[in-house]
Amino acid sequence: MSCLRFKYCCGFGVSSWLISRQGLSWGGFSHVAPMLADGSHIDARSDIIRAPKGGWRDEAGNLIAAFPPAIPAGIQHRPAGYEDWKREVIVEVPCSAQQEADAYGYMRRHIGDQYDNAAIGAFILGFAMHGRGRAICSAFTLDIMRYVKLTNGTFIKTWEVPPNTMFMVMTEGMGARAIY
Questions:
Q1: Angle at 91 between CA 143 and CA 151, to 5 degrees
Q2: What does the alpha-carbon distance between residue 117 and residue 74 come to, in Å, rounded to a whole number?
Q3: Lower CB count within 10 Å: N or C terminus of the chain?
Q4: What percent of the chain is helix, strand and coil (3-state, nearest 5)?
Q5: What homologous superfamily does CATH list for 2-47+75-178?
Q6: DSSP 120
């Protein structure tokens, strides 16, 4: 049986704390990063990610040449371990081999899409401010799940779904399991 993996995490900043409170109150998540089989991510971020001094390195300390020194905001391919997190959990969603392949293809086709900064403001302020044609991490994740028909999610507007809601949909509604 194949599976899709997603890293749920929470950063150290105030904005991470505010986002992590949407849906779970204390102890929630501020980001969800869809993972590829090699542990790298194709996820939506609002900021530029810069390589540490000496470049991106794998767990063995070898230089990873496939990633540029600065990865722009939006939906981008990012190396495993690109950021230190206050809290993180990896969730596995069971799927068919075809769904897994389709999900990876969907992720790759969306590299370069813009980030939806206004949707984050909507979480904090409590009203819709979505930017059409843009995505946040959890909306991108829900779009992946819908594309491969693991959920129809019709009751949730993609731009209104915080990471904690996606975590609950996966772990309570889709039979996913936390593995880390």
A1: 35
A2: 10
A3: N
A4: 30, 25, 45
A5: endopeptidase domain like (from Nostoc punctiforme) (3.90.1720.10)
A6: H
3-state SS, residue 76: strand
Alpha-carbon distance of 51 to 76, in angstroms, equals: 14
Domain ranges in the chain?
2-47+75-178
Structure confidence at residue 111 (pLDDT): 95
CA–CA dist 54, 38 (Å, integer): 21
Whose CA is closest to 35, among 77, 67, 96, 71?
77
C-alpha to C-alpha distances, 126 to 15, 16, 22, 147, nearest whole angstrom: 15, 16, 10, 27
Per-residue pLDDT tens for 57-111? 888 888 888 899 999 999 999 999 888 888 899 999 999 999 999 999 999 999 9
Q: Which two tokens stand for residue 104?
A: 């990876």
105 three-class SS: helix
CA distance 19 to 87: 14
Candidates 155, 110, 161, 165; CA nearest to 133 is 110
Number of H helices, E strands in the chain: 5, 8
Q: What angle do CA 36, 100, 32 make, to 5 degrees?
A: 50
> β-strand 74-78 against 41-45: which pairing, if any?
antiparallel
